[in-house]
Structures are given as C-alpha cells and as structure tokens.
Automatic annotation (TrEMBL):
Identification of the protein by name: N-acetyltransferase domain-containing protein
PROSITE patterns listed in its UniProt record: GNAT
Organismal lineage: Bacteria, Pseudomonadati, Pseudomonadota, Gammaproteobacteria, Pseudomonadales
Source species, domain of life: Bacteria
Species, as recorded: Pseudomonas graminis
Gene3D superfamilies registered for this protein in UniProt: 3.40.630.30
Gene Ontology molecular functions: acyltransferase activity, transferring groups other than amino-acyl groups
N-acetyltransferase domain segment(s): 1-130
Alphabetized InterPro entries for the sequence: Acyl_CoA_acyltransferase, GNAT_dom
Length: 137
C-alpha cells in the first residue's frame, strides 16, 4: 500500500469530502461544525467527521473507499483523529461492526450525552444500531 497520510481537512477543502462521498455513492455527509479527517494517497481514500458534544466528540461519516478496505485505513484514520481531541468519543454503528470498534478501544454503552440519546432513539426506529464509546485516557 502506498504511503497514506492521515490529516485534518481544512474547512476550505470541505467540498472534496462531499465529492469523495458522492463518487462512492455513500449517504455520508459532513455537518457544519464537524472536524473532517481524511486518509489521502494522494486522493482521499477514507474520511470521518468529529462533532463536538458534551464531554467529547461524536464520530460520524466514517467511510473507506471499497478498494482500500481491509488495509487498516479506517483504524489509522480513527487513531490519527482521536489524538487531536479531548474527552470521550461516541459513535453509532450496526451490530456487526462492533468487533472492529472494540479492537481499537471502543466499548458498547447506553449512557450517552444528552444531545446524542434522542438522535440514537430516532435512528433506531429505522435500523438496528448500537452505541459505543472510547473514553478519554
């Protein structure tokens, strides 16, 4: 695998993320206040968003180009992004992805920040999701 850089995407380059998501027909989108992190090779091959919430951040929008999956891109991207934030990091995922997240330090949790609990309840009306957290060290 050629060298991959994991870096925060400057706000002015935000359209590159939307282009990446669209090119792969991903439903992912970046919220306005989110920090955007990308894996570049030199084109974007993976991305995620970190949105501030009470006590930490909410990780959303994790997507890796299908041709790059299984090569450690997602784990590397998460590791790079989480170095830059303080507090806990929460995410929602489908149950079959829990093993991946648990291997990189996340644990299943039901106790969520006030702004995330109703969102998870709403999402669970249409799909099975679990919530995970990686607590601040």
């Amino acid at each position: 695998m050629p060298d991959i850089q994991f870096l925060r995407l400057p706000d002015l380059q935000r359209p590159l993320l939307e282009k990446f998501y669209r090119a792969h027909r991903s439903p992912m989108r970046a919220r306005g206040e989110a920090q955007i992190w990308v894996a570049r090779q030199p084109d974007i091959v993976g991305a995620l968003c970190l949105t501030p919430v009470s006590g930490g951040h909410w990780l959303t929008g994790l997507f890796v180009a299908p041709a790059e999956r299984g090569r450690g891109v997602a784990a590397g991207l998460i590791a790079a992004a989480l170095i830059s934030v303080e507090g806990s990091v929460w995410l929602f995922c489908e149950p079959e992805l829990s093993g991946f997240y648990q291997r990189i330090g996340f644990v299943e949790v039901e106790d969520l920040p006030q702004e995330l609990a109703p969102r998870l309840a709403r999402y669970r009306q249409t799909k099975p999701l679990i919530s995970l957290v990686r607590s601040a060290d």
